[in-house]
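Hi there,

I know you've been waiting on this one. I reran it after we fixed the sequence typo, so this is the corrected version. Both the input and the resulting structure follow.
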Amino acid sequence: MADPTGRGAPAQAGGEPGDDLLRIAGVVRGRAWLVAFCLALALLGGVLHLRHAQPLYSATATIKFEPRDVGIVGQENLQTANSNLRDIETQLELIRSPRVAAAVAESLGLDAAKEQAEQPGSGPIGALGARLAGSWKFLARSLVTYEPVDLDPELRRQQAVVKRLLEGLEVRRRLDTRIIRITATDADAEMSARLANEFAAQYALSLSRDQAEAYQYARGQLTRQLADSRARLEAAERELFEFAAGPTEPQEPPATPAGIDAAPDLRILDQNLDISIATMRLLTEQIETTKNDIALYSAENSAAKVEAIKQLLLRTDTGYAKLEDRVQELELERISLAADNEPAYPPLRKVERELEFLRAEMRTLETNVLGESEGRLALARFKLTALEQRLAEQEERAAAIQRRRVDYTVLQRGVESERALYGALLDRSKQLDIKQEVEPSNVTLVGRAMIPGEPAYPRIGNTLLVAALLGLGAGIVLALGMHWLDRSVYDPATVERRMGLPSLGMVPFLGRLRKGAAKGRTGLLITSPGTSPLEADAFRFVRTSLQYASAGRPPRAILVTSALAQEGKSTVAANIAIAFAEAGRRVLLIDGDLKAPSVHRVFGIDKTPGLTDVLTGQREFADAIQQAPDAPSLQILPAGPQAPSPVDLLDSAAMDRVLEAARAKYDLVVVDAAPCQAMADALVLARRVDGVCIVVNHGKTDIELLEKTVAALERVGAHLFGAVYNSRSKYRRGPRYGYGFGYGEGYGTDAASAKG
């Protein structure tokens, strides 16, 4: 939302980066009285606070904290009661804990009623804070309905003491070190030192108790774990022994295959496994040999069915060969005997009988040889079956040994693991006992609190500085707030932008009496003694602006008005007339404000005769004209006596005749009209002049009333030349005066010539 006054508008393109800050500084400077008042009020409050606040003494004890590893038992599942003591920030909260404060109160024998009675006053500010807190509590109880808590009186007193101690305690860490400062504040200097030292001592005792409880907790945990570990170790050893010893009850299935001895350790199992593997290797070799024999015997049996091969097989038998040789010998002998003797010859018969016997033996032996070959084949096959069965048994035996060896290894590793854990817990228990006996405290008292020689509160410099900062801040905020809420015009550019009303210039505020002014004159004119050349130049600037306000020719009749009274329109009109008169123009200044005329006071002339006399026909126009002092080319037509109906007089043919006569006699007519708001005087006159000049009191004229004034003049068809900005600030030498004023300060002077 745009600022209607233009005060909060951002700097225009090409402006300096610090324009906004300069604008804010100007706003604060314009309301310096408000800032000074707030500063004085705040300093007065600070002084009253210092006068009524009771002194408080502060004493500081210094300790050093050494963080330690809280993993006392070395097991993740063993959490100690001291596990939250890891960093120093935690220690600060522990020192401020109600437990330590309660221990301090008990050690020093503090009583709640006594402490409350000795509680020092906190001055007006503290009293105000207490009242605000009480009001807030009352409001809270009014908004939320709840039953009061019924506390034991003794517990309530203890809580009051703890709360009071904690309110006066300050614990802070020194930079990034392990040094902790404990500061206690009390109305008694000696008590403040005692409190600081006692807080340090009770904190150290609290840590010692926590450490002892942690060791006790850890020892209990270790004891329980040792018992559990011992029980698990005994169970594992018992299971290993029972496994090595084999089954204990007959109805249970055998733990090992037949032929496997119970092994007390892995060496025997490994030996049995090696034996079984060697036996399996030997059986495998025998099976291969038997398979070869079976193949050979099968080949022999197949070959024996061939006669030639059968004869070769029979001849390989020595007994059969001897019988065959004997048969051949006897056959020769029979042939020899048969050739010479009769068949009944006894030797021949004997030889024949022996031959028959030998041939029978040969047939028997042939049968036996062939049968033996088949028997060897059958025996070899039986042997192969037996060997394969033995190999299967050995394989089963080796697998059983291997399984037993694995089970034994698992049980043995379990026993070793439990034994190692038990040993580690036992060692940790011994280390815990030693550590508890020799470990020092991790809190060291570096410096005891000394009894302070002077109070630490209230601090005069800090209190006054804070009061001054608060006063300055409040004053600046109020100044900016009032400036923001103020609807007055502060920037001519805003008027030009919103209403299209050109700026004719900014003139200084001449509403003060100057020394050396003539008797009976107000000193509001640029011709008055003591007027600065810059002030006169400001009105000459307005004169130049008015000369070029109308296209084609300069104006002959100018109406000067404003939105409200007391905005300096009469003074501006008088000085504009003087500025034109100085340029050699014949000028007539008419006081058209018949209700509250002031032109005669500005020039120090008589009010009568005047305009009302001319309009009512009591005087001629020329008879009512008066000469302006110190301005030969300027004449004045005062307002005259009070008229009952000024609007009717101004909106009459007589007024038209006055203006026509003035135009005919003078080069310029300047009419000082009444304010536009709530009056129609300026509106009826605006139609009879060449243009209207609106006086805007810089910092006083309301922007909305100015908009209404412009709108009213435009409705009656008035031609608006622009606005003259009457500055509210007193004249200052330098370019800070305002928009359009102060430009060229020093130009043409001796100082400027010396500079340039």
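Quick highlight: The chain has 23 helices and twelve strands.

Best,
R. S.
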